[in-house]
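The record is passed on directly below:
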Amino acid sequence: MHISTAEEIDLIREAKKTQSHITAETCPNYLWFDDRDYERLQYKLKCNPAIKAASDRTALLQAVREGIIDTIGTDHAPHLLEEKQQNYLQSPSGLPSIQFSLAVMVELALQGTFTLPTLVERMCHAPARIYGIEQRGFIREGHFADLVLISIDPEHKTTVTTEQLAGKCGWSPYEGWEFSTKVEYTWVNGKAVVANSQLQNIEKPGIALTYKR
């Protein structure tokens, strides 16, 4: 989990040739940022494992495209800004990333890094299949309606601002970045938890997952 280096990719690629049970995951922050972003973001980019060089990011993107990376996680760690603003060594590792995980992945797809079907496979199909989650991860009759409707407009990108943040920690390493996507609706178990791009006050929309093992 949380693969962040080209060396790990090489090891996993070799292992998968003879061991089909091996799977690998990385996070959007490792696919979007590299060590050149530390100068601007500093403590906001501190996570564990650390974000590495541009060459590692390139290897990770290739691995997502090839299927060496099976799934995309988020590593959502919403530390308060005053906690993160400490001396770098004392600043806790982790960053809030759930809200823009899909935007990052779609943007990479629009850049031609991988296809939109690949994105769906890594973020929806593969997690459900690998973990044996019942009635999830696919748009199928009899499955729970866990869906997102997005609009895509590369000609009119949206800049991430503090006012747009839904997380209670009130900051994001993606502030200032531009994305071509906008989440219009999100349904969890058939309930619209986001409608017209606004969070809805839905009490306990989630239910326990079940697994086929």
Helices lie at 6-16, 28-32, 38-41, 54-66, 81-84, 101-110, 116-131.
